[in-house]
Amino acid sequence: MRRIRLETAALYVTASVFLAFTLFPVYWAINSSLQTGSDLFKVNYIPSQPTLENYWSVFKSQPFGQNILNSLLVASLTVTASLGLAVFASYALGRVRFLGHRLLLYTVLVVTMFPQVSILAGMLELIRTLGLYNNVMGLALSYLLFTLPFTIWILTNFMRNVPAEIEEAALMDGAPPWQVITRILLPIVRPGLVTAGLLAFVAAWNEFLFALTFTLTNEARTVPVAIALLSGANQYELPWGQIMAASVIVTIPVVLIAVAFQRRIIAGLTAGAIKR
């Protein structure tokens, strides 16, 4: 009995340390965003004179509201395109047996191993050729390079774990393949769709290198680039308060989405690990 209590206490202590280590940067960002002037360079665990000046300054110094809308639009387009293409690709890879399907699946995985900088020049030339430079559509297209492969991998695992009898029964009843996918398989793999969609959204929301390279004006930039280009009174001065405030603002949508879909995300992560 005493051993069980010690193990439980050790578990709680470990979890508390891990939680504090994980949440302290978030707390410090919020704390710093509520301070201005010399207070930013003092160790104040609780702001002596909290203010929202940094939050107002972020929107006054540049079109930060437009940057947020750009990020939302790009991330939404990326998620929609990734899931739309991955559903049919994962159905083919997970349910249909054809020559080379395993090789094709691993080829999709290999694509994610290339660093972004290695394909940056080629993607820039493609974006300019298509006339999508400094355009949110160009960013959404380029983001498919790293969101589509892992989305296909996640959904392929879910498609493979769906009992074959369900699909066979629908086909015997006369349902065409596209109805089997849209009306039977998709509701079953919904947790996987939510999990893959959230991961794709976070990846597109936080992406920096392509957004910096493929945009030119403040009106077309996304929030990671807008935050990186924040400047103070001179080129050697960084407005740390505004940077922290902007970081807090852009974290809120991701947190809200994660909280709203937390049950489906957990179900997706656990269901994908079960092999039937």
Write a concise synopsis of the structure shown.
The protein is mainly α.
Description:
The longest helix is centred in the N-terminal third of the chain and has 32 residues. With 276 residues, the protein is mainly α. The chain has 13 helices and no strands. Helix 3 packs parallel to helix 6. The protein folds into two domains: 51 residues, no CATH class; 219 residues, MetI-like fold. It is globular. 72% of the residues lie in helices and 0% in strands.
Write the layout of secondary structure elements.
Elements: H1 2-33, H2 53-61, H3 64-95, H4 101-111, H5 120-129, H6 136-161, H7 164-172, H8 177-188, H9 190-206, H10 209-213, H11 223-228, H12 240-260, H13 262-271
Helix pairs in contact: 1-12, 2-12, 3-6, 3-9, 4-6, 6-9, 7-8, 9-13
